[in-house]
Amino acid sequence: MITRLAVAGYRSLRDVVLELGQLTLITGANGSGKSSLYRALRLLAETAQGRLIASLAGEGGLSSALWAGPENFSRAMRAGAQPVQGTVRSGPISLKLGFSSDDFGYAIDLGLPDPTHPFQRDPEIKVEAMWTGAMLGRANLFAERRGAAVSLRRAESGEWRHAMTNLSAFDSMVTHCADPVDGLELLMMRERMRNWRFYDALRTDADAPSRRPQVMTYTPVLASDGADLAAAIATIMAIGDREELDETIEDAFPGSQILVGEVDGHGVVEMRQPGLLRPLGARELSDGTLRYLLLAAALLSPRPPDIMVLNEPEASLHPSLLEPLARLLQRASRHGQIVIVSHSERLIQGLRRGGGMQEIRLSKALGETQSDAEDAPRWVWPKR
Question: Which Gene3D superfamilies match (predicted)?
Answer without folding.
Answer: P-loop containing nucleotide triphosphate hydrolases
